[in-house]
Specification:
44% of the residues lie in helices and 14% in strands. By secondary structure, the chain is an alpha/beta fold.
Amino acid sequence: MNTTLLSLQGRTALVTGAATGIGRAIAILFAQAGARVVVNHLGQAETVSAVVRSIERAGGEAIAIDADVSLASEVQRLVAEAGELHILVNNAGIIQEKPFLDTTEADWDRMLGVDLKSVFLTSRAVLPGMVARGSGVIVNLASDLGILGREWYAPYCAAKAGVIGLTRSLAREFAPQGIRVNAIAPGPVNTAMVSLESMSPEWMEKELAIPQHRVAEPEEIAATALFLASDLSRFYCGQVLGPNGGSVMP
């Protein structure tokens, strides 16, 4: 295999929600592949500084930008500060475990704002530059629960299903202009957002009831993101890849 096809040398990648978890792993791996990485975060300056220092110590290049990607004005500022972008990874997300009948309108709006509206806003901000250049890559982080559904997670499941639908729509619209749009729908991943401390025992029991009987490490999801961002995936269009331990077998 020609490993240069995995290189991101000379490209700039924006990774949203990259201070911790999957986003952090993607930012570090992209930098190792040669990309200049824009590490987006929201109010996590100390944590994200450690990510940037880690990348720079390894000889990579990264900058951190604090911005709320659920707000259009913040996204416009983020993209303006980032400069020319070749790769966008829409990773920012939140999750909430709550019975549907206890779910408030505020719960719904917050979940859809961070997990789905942000994908719309950042893609809308970045795509004009990609169209003008005739090339670009967008990778959206969905979830296996956007396919499977799960009780007590209605807003999250709806948002992630929306990410999948948006991915396919954008892929059809922009593929003729040289832009690849694909999604990743991970299964359970060992992050601060999804852990034994933050989720119920019932959640963990369901998450581990998959063929591999374990949760993934963020680096295992980052590997799929690197593949989709690289030239190895140049014939992938509107696909949803599932590093999920067997939770979904389409």
